[in-house]
Amino acid sequence: MWPFGNKTLLDADTTAWHVDNFEWLLKVLPTENDFAKTRLILPRPGFFDSHGLKGDALAQSLFNQVKAYCGMADWPVELISEGAAPKRNRDLIQVPDRNLGFSGTFATDGNAAVITYDPALLDTPHDFITTMAHELAHYLLATVPDERACDDTHEEHLTDLTAVFLGFGVFLANSAFTFEQWRDEGLGASQGWSYKRSGYLSETELVFATALFLTLSGKDCAAAETSLKPHLAKQLRQAIKELSKSDLSALRVLTLSQ
Fold this sequence. Notes:
Layout: H1 12-28, H2 55-69, E1 77-81, E2 94-96, E3 104-109, E4 112-117, H3 125-142, H4 155-175, E5 177-184, E6 190-197, H5 203-217, H6 222-227, H7 230-244, H8 249-257
Parallel strand pairs: 1-4, 2-6
Antiparallel strand pairs: 3-4, 5-6
Protein name: IrrE N-terminal-like domain-containing protein
């Protein structure tokens, strides 16, 4: 027999963190965020419409669509465009472009909420939508007075998990790591590569969280698989299989009680 056995997608402690915090979210989030009615939001036709808009008008339209999917359509919040981040210097042959976090911010101003975004995100609407889901998750968590199930150092990780809870797991997982190769004939045929890391949970953690969302909501994972990057779709199948052998009875009771 092969001596090392089957390797699980996440280690035991990380798996427990996801399950414990998902259970906490089921207990504390407002009733309008009915988990049983939450849709799996996918980067496919029929979910978002640009309405032919551009610039800030497009940002506002997409933001309102994300708010509606999050069950927060009527929540007061101002969306503000911030200055674009500096462009990459393509004279460099290798350009690591590691972005830890999201190109957006959430803050409160008295009774109002303010979310900002980098307008460069609109070049890739998928990333804009992902960022808005994360920032709205911040807004949602800010309304929860209960003590967190995790410590303060994992607040941003919990925010990622909350965005998955709101149905945006596929968006977050696909955006978590991006690798790009390029060639610029105008600079003497210079070429190189860059990569971007977005968010706080890893790709694999986001896939596991998405599998937990699908398992508890009873949704078919086929649509998620076909919308994920191929290597992430493979991980999703593994996570679904692992969760099918796990005792999630406490979480299932919470989903039924909402």
